[in-house]
Write a structure and sequence with these properties.
4-stranded antiparallel β-sheet, 9% helix
Length: 70
């Protein structure tokens, strides 16, 4: 969430994961997807990784949410 801005919740997946539209702070391109902190709260930690700088990254392979550029 630290790398995102203009975050708008737009719905929920069938499994109860919040879905958002947002842009990254360095871009005006808009994306749709999940936020790692929500997945942690939901106990879906197997879908979270950390990069070398300590930022969370979502692994969408086991989620019913797609990461999409809109």
């Amino acid at each position: 969430i630290r790398l995102k801005e203009n975050i708008n919740k737009i719905g929920m997946s069938k499994s109860g994961i919040p879905i958002y539209e947002f842009n990254y702070k360095w871009s005006t391109d808009r994306y749709r997807g999940a936020i790692a902190q929500d997945l942690i709260k939901l106990g879906l930690v197997e879908s979270i990784n950390k990069d070398n700088e300590g930022f969370y990254m979502v692994d969408y392979n086991n989620l019913d949410v797609e990461f999409t550029k809109i």
